[in-house]
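INFO batch 0412 | record 1 of 1 | parsing
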Amino acid sequence: MAEELTLEKFEEAYNIIKKVVLPTKLVESEYYSNLTGNKVFFKPENMQLTGAYKIRGAYYKISTLSDEEREKGLITASAGNHAQGVAYAAKCYGCKATIVMPTTTPLIKVNRTKGYGAEVVLYGDVYDEACEKAYELAKEKLQITLALSLHAPNDEKRRELMPIANRYSMDEVLDACRNYFQETGRRITFEYSLVAGVNDSDEDAKELSSRIHDINCHVNLIPVNPIKERSYRRSTHQAVENFKIKLEKCGINVTIRREMGSDIDGACGQLRKSYMEKGYDQQ
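INFO prediction complete | emitting tokens
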């Protein structure tokens, strides 16, 4: 069963990450406030030490590892912001970090990740090539946890949501995951962003369950954050809970990412460069 997020756990996480997270005050956007007829605020998380909010999750996750786990080191894949957060957090805890980044990653992000002490491995042009890399990592028996962006129960919907998913079919991706678990014995995490009316129905949950029920996995449900450039809408709270329950009834371990950033914490995808370029007074 999914672990419930309580106020105590939230406060515990806050007390840990406040050591490395800078306070960033909300800044009102006159342009977007006038455009929407509402008060619109942005949270300038680009002022964090690593240039993005993702240091929060990376630092907290590494804080939960045992000394033995940190001694083994860690490995992740990222195109930039997550990489820098992990590299910095790993440096703070004195553990080795190996980060696989696409060859198309901007050089400035590669160099900043290296600057925090991480070993950077440049591999592949697009995200889906992580599927191919997963086989290699499994054979090398590296002590890593594999996380895969799934986001849909079938190829048609996945390619609509993730155009870069055209290279590998879901069957190929899931077969790679089964092979990874067989070789390593380590549970796999599937990231699944919920979009209202697109991939959050009971039928979607049923189809997803049928495809992954035989894999030792954990599904992380992520209610999508609405952004101006796309028509995607966040699934309702009830739809998210129903989706979670459907998966759990099939014996699948599920958690829901609590997205509180949309109103106070700078949610993913909602910071706007057009406003940031107008400048603000750093507090």
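INFO post-check: The radius of gyration is 19 Å.
INFO record closed
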